[in-house]
Amino acid sequence: MQIIDGGVTAALGFSANGVACGVKKRKKDLALVHSEVPCSFAGSFTTNLVKAAPVLWDQKLVSSSPQARAIVINSGNANACTASQGERDAEAMAVHTAKTLGLLPEEVLVCSTGIIGLPLPMDKIVTGIDACAKVLASSREGAREAAKAILTTDTFTKEIAVSLEIDGKQVTIGGMAKGSGMIHPNMATMLSFITTDATIDKAVLQALLGSSIRDTYNMISVDGDTSTNDTVLVLANGKSGCNALSPSHSQWEAFTQAFLYVHKELAKAIVRDGEGAGKFLEVTVKGAKDKQSAQTLARSIISSNLVKTAFFGSDANWGRILCAMGYSGACFDPNGVDLFFSSSKGTIQVVAGGSPLDFDEHMAKGILLERDVQTLAILGDGEGEGTAWGCDLSYEYVRINGDYRS
């Protein structure tokens, strides 16, 4: 696998772009992603019972439509909690995009992100779709502008692309994402769009996406909130010419690892851009009873507001970590825990066999003052291992979300 410079247009046959249509002030707010040929596709969506209208539209297509050709995305307005009008507007976005690109409405996926509870300004959306369709491009710049148009409180775009050889053909996977706040395990306030020129059946792709999400987007946390619009969509158009990929293919493992890498890097980029975040936190649990237990423990640690605030203050308050492990719901032996903090400044052990160590507080402070901090908990219960990613919780987070609508 090779990491390349690219986004959603890196794979053969895909074009994209982004425009400003007036949903947001002075910023790009509408993007299109288009495939020149039909795609197999897969989707995963928010676990929130309150689902935005675009989520309902996309869920219907994932369950009933055999193929997709395009995704239309607007930012600045979530089209959530907008009742039947919101559902009509989501469908209208698909219908107008289909008409503009010469597709069927059931070939167009729809996503929205932004403020909840306001009707979409459909006149602006329609104008934006028309404008964006005219500038669709397979270039790097087209991907970059689309990535800009899907942002809300994000401070940077999130893109990734990789390539690998399968059946003697160059296969590419590219993607873009947005997400900054309302990020929590079981997906987040996030959108992620993946394109690939691999050949893969829809059912196989859906199963692969489900397994990949468990180890990526479901292992990140910014603030403990799960949104109404969380969506991950994957389009595969087969333009590479490789043979159909499935678990029986000799290079299936190589493809799945590349696919997982793309999702993991996008998930980590979302956490790095957490609203008001000053630190990127990685928590790994080893020696748990099984993988599920390890992931549960890691998620509990990274999701704890008390743990987040301790990291914000660069305070080696390891008791909060053991506390978060204790209420996680996973079974483990507290008397078998070894706990370490690491960063570019070094590594320090603070707990051994469940007992506190007399560690150097000054050294610990120096380690925790760094931008990237790792926590390692080693248990003695089995071979299970899991990693979660998160960020600290700062004064700036409160400021950003205190005046989000203002």
UniProtKB/TrEMBL annotation:
Pfam family name, one: ArgJ
Primary role: Catalyzes two activities which are involved in the cyclic version of arginine biosynthesis: the synthesis of N-acetylglutamate from glutamate and acetyl-CoA as the acetyl donor, and of ornithine by transacetylation between N(2)-acetylornithine and glutamate.
SUPFAM superfamilies: DmpA/ArgJ-like (SSF56266)
Organism: Sphaerochaeta halotolerans
Pathway per the UniProt entry: Amino-acid biosynthesis; L-arginine biosynthesis; L-ornithine and N-acetyl-L-glutamate from L-glutamate and N(2)-acetyl-L-ornithine (cyclic): step 1/1; Amino-acid biosynthesis; L-arginine biosynthesis; N(2)-acetyl-L-ornithine from L-glutamate: step 1/4
Binding residues annotated for substrate, in chain numbering: T152, K178, T189, E275, N401, S406
Keywords in alphabetical order: Acyltransferase, Amino-acid biosynthesis, Arginine biosynthesis, Autocatalytic cleavage, Cytoplasm, Multifunctional enzyme, Transferase
NCBIfam families in the cross-refs: ArgJ (TIGR00120), PRK05388.1 (NF003802)
Active site: residue positions: T189
Gene (name only): argJ
Gene3D superfamilies assigned: arginine biosynthesis bifunctional protein suprefamily, ArgJ beta chain, C-terminal domain, L-amino peptidase D-ALA esterase/amidase
GO molecular function: L-glutamate N-acetyltransferase activity; L-glutamate N-acetyltransferase activity, acting on acetyl-L-ornithine as donor
Taxon lineage: Bacteria, Pseudomonadati, Spirochaetota, Spirochaetia, Spirochaetales
UniProt xrefs under CDD domains: OAT
Record site feature (Involved in the stabilization of negative charge on the oxyanion by the formation of the oxyanion hole), residues: T113, G114
One cellular component (GO) term of this entry: cytoplasm
Family affiliation: Belongs to the ArgJ family.
Signal peptide (from-to): none
Site residues (Cleavage), renumbered to this chain: A188, T189
EC number: 2.3.1.35, 2.3.1.1
Name of this chain's protein: Arginine biosynthesis bifunctional protein ArgJ
Assembly notes: Heterotetramer of two alpha and two beta chains.
Compartment annotation: Cytoplasm
Catalytic activities: N(2)-acetyl-L-ornithine + L-glutamate = N-acetyl-L-glutamate + L-ornithine; L-glutamate + acetyl-CoA = N-acetyl-L-glutamate + CoA + H(+)
One of the protein's GO biological processes: L-arginine biosynthetic process
